Amino acid sequence: MRFRTRFTPAACALGLAGLLAFPAMAQLPMGEMAGADRDGNGSISTQEVRDAAAQQFARLDGDHNGSLSQAEFVDARLEMFSALDADGNGEIDRSEMRQAAKAARRKR
């Protein structure tokens, strides 16, 4: 049996935004993450997630043409890599991955 998954543009945008934003989000203080909670009710709604994803996409779309070029995508990934590469040696080891995960848990 084969399963076929269809990804809507919105789902792709949310997934891409999450994938690209992970290190940055892991380093944000809770107050800044709470910025996504626009109505201040203590939770983040689907619409608030969509709005945050749209803002993230706009930030990544350097030439503001409504799409991400390969260069824009690679630049974002390199930014993520640099955020994880704590010692700046050009490699991410298990210790650095664990540090990033711990930092993300502490900031929740």
UniProtKB/TrEMBL annotation:
One annotated GO molecular function: calcium ion binding
Gene3D superfamilies: EF-hand
Signal peptide stretch: 1-26
Pfam families in the cross-refs: EF-hand_1
Domain EF-hand: start-end pairs: 72-107
Kinase found in the keyword field: no
Region Disordered, annotated ranges: 88-108
SUPFAM superfamilies the UniProt entry points to: EF-hand (SSF47473)
Keywords assigned by UniProt, alphabetized: Signal
Protein name: EF-hand domain-containing protein
The species this protein was found in: Hydrocarboniphaga effusa AP103
Upper lineage: Bacteria, Pseudomonadati, Pseudomonadota, Gammaproteobacteria, Nevskiales
